[in-house]
Amino acid sequence: MTAFLRLFQPDPGPRLEGRTVFLRLPRLHDYKPWAELRARSAAFLKPWEPTWPEDDLTRPAFRARLNAYARELELGEAFPFFMFRRDDGTLIGGVRLFHIRRGVSQTAVMGYWIGQPHARQGYMQDGVRAAIDFAFGELGLHRLEAACMPENEPSAAVLLKSGFREEGYAPAYLKINGEWRDHRLFGMVAPPAC
């Protein structure tokens, strides 16, 4: 319940700073800019994402999303960040660390999205870098993983420029836009401690 309440506080959770962006946990008042950006970018995003439910952009669905995020935070399983441009605070995308595993593995998976008007301007790489620093720093993780479809060269470029290494190929890895799709697999390990 604590994580759920944090999502409704004026300044919940960590704020990750990049050069051109900052990341923070989503808040209830983010609904309108989030829904507008996702609606405006639907044709751009849908080829790379799981099928959107019919009510995905409604306020009740957003509230349910926040509740799910709160449960994941409470369990330490995920950190869902919204990404904002630093110069004007505009919501431009999101970065999510999820499937966080502790014990002998100390790993997480990273996923991300960016609205079409903000794509290919360096924001995503800056946001990914801030999330990497958080994962290896504050969270103390040892390894991060990510994946993208073979034809998604911009996403692969973000990962490679951010320090990920390509590690393999997984047939029918994730169900994207209603179809099981192959993915390129990427990973990175925390730098050695100084």
Automatic annotation (TrEMBL):
Pfam families: Acetyltransf_3. It is an enzyme of class 2 (transferase). GO terms for molecular function: protein-N-terminal-alanine acetyltransferase activity. Residues 21-187 form the N-acetyltransferase domain. The keyword Acyltransferase applies. The keyword Amino-acid biosynthesis does not apply. Its EC number is 2.3.1.267. InterPro entries: Acyl_CoA_acyltransferase, GNAT_dom, N-acetyltransferase. Keywords: Acyltransferase, Transferase. Gene3D superfamilies: 3.40.630.30. It comes from the Bacteria. Belongs to the acetyltransferase family. RimJ subfamily. This is Ribosomal-protein-alanine N-acetyltransferase. It comes from Caulobacter rhizosphaerae. The lineage of its organism: Bacteria, Pseudomonadati, Pseudomonadota, Alphaproteobacteria, Caulobacterales.
